[in-house]
Amino acid sequence: MSNQPTYSLRQLVLYFLKLGTTGFGGPVALVGYMHKDLVENRKWISEEEYKQGLALAQLAPGPLAAQLGIYLGFVHYRIIGATLAGLAFIIPSFIMVVLLGMAYKLYGGLAWMQAVFYGVGAAVIGIIANSSYKLTTKSIGKFNAVSFKKNWLLWLFFITAAAITFLTQQEQVLLFVAAGLIYMFVKAPPNWFTNKIANSFVLLQIGFWNFEPGILGKIGLFFAKAGTFVFGSGLAIVPFLHAGVVTENHWLTEQQFLDAVAVAMITPGPVVITVGFIGYLVAGFPGACVAAAATFLPCYLLTVIPAPYFKKIAANHSIKAFVDGITATVVGALVGAVIVIATRSIIDVNTALIAIATVFALLYIKKIQEPYIIAIAALIGILIKLIL
């Protein structure tokens, strides 16, 4: 981590505040935004630092995009940078899901939100597909014969991870570690290996402060487990949340849980922020705070604590090969996640057309911003589902 940043801590915090407020598309898109903004455009972070952060974020449990943001904050401004970047990234979407939780308590349903998600979900597929393509070309190489021949092992990891993620609908951390180790031993085996291993009223109506005694402790314990033991993106945490929230604890009905996932997908920031919405429905504002804190605190600690050591050992050629192997597998897993999400969001001709139009807009209208695409898609969803 270089000692002379070209940006101030204030600029860093403002960037993540903006990303948390306008960054739609889930972990794949958010990771792509950070690369485009911080590595390509502003050049605040080097390509190597970004790749190290992506590898560490995937190795540690918790939400991928939030962990990467925390690590990038740590690169030049250490603990204070990591803390403020993480908070700035998470707080905007947390406020949004709490406000939507209030509306949900008041009106009892989200028919209009489902209409919005109909359009937004399809547009999101286009956004994250475009981001995945850019990440692939940056991390592994272009889709051509020269790259396939030169980096054939990385491409093999990429394809394997994409297929396994699509089939299991989860990211497999052991696969990432195995790929890193294999690539390390092939490209730059460590010395010990080559030496053969030697040496108020309204607030009451919306349930703002309503919760049962003891429930906050249960919420904290459950969501701490979710943040500690679930690896990868929001896609991986959803089945874990469903089992605990709906099946085991019966805190929410099936429909309420589906609405919570919809809320996360149509709000900016990390998809995992749905825990704030779930916590609010279960135990009001205190429940939202406890659920969010319990989920994100483990990922913060498991990113910041190993970060300085990760950087020091990353200069080693063997470790670099290990990181390259993991990164190729990580990007492959993210592409697999895109396919899984697409199978759930592209449900008819209209959504397919919205997704395709989004991809073409991002490719050929250079100055268009993702939030504008999301807003247009939301209006189209409302028009199709509620008006036509």
**Major sheet characteristics:** none
Mean pLDDT: 82
Estimated helix fraction = over 70%
How far is the N terminus from the C terminus?
55 Å
Radius of gyration equals 21 Å
What pattern of helices and strands is seen along the backbone?
Answer: HHHHHHHHHHHHHHHHHH
Number of strands: 0
Number of domains: 1
The SS-based structural class is mainly alpha
Gist of the model:
The termini are far apart.
What does this 3D model show about the protein?
This protein has one domain. With 388 residues, the chain is mainly alpha-helical. The protein contains 18 helices and no strands. The termini are far apart.
Layout: helices, strands, pairs:
Blueprint: H1 9-22, H2 26-41, H3 47-59, H4 64-107, H5 111-139, H6 145-150, H7 152-168, H8 173-187, H9 191-194, H10 201-205, H11 215-229, H12 234-248, H13 254-266, H14 274-304, H15 307-313, H16 317-345, H17 349-364, H18 370-387
Helix pairs in contact: 1-4, 2-4, 2-5, 3-4, 3-16, 4-14, 5-13, 5-16, 5-17, 5-18, 7-8, 7-16, 8-16, 11-12, 11-14, 13-14
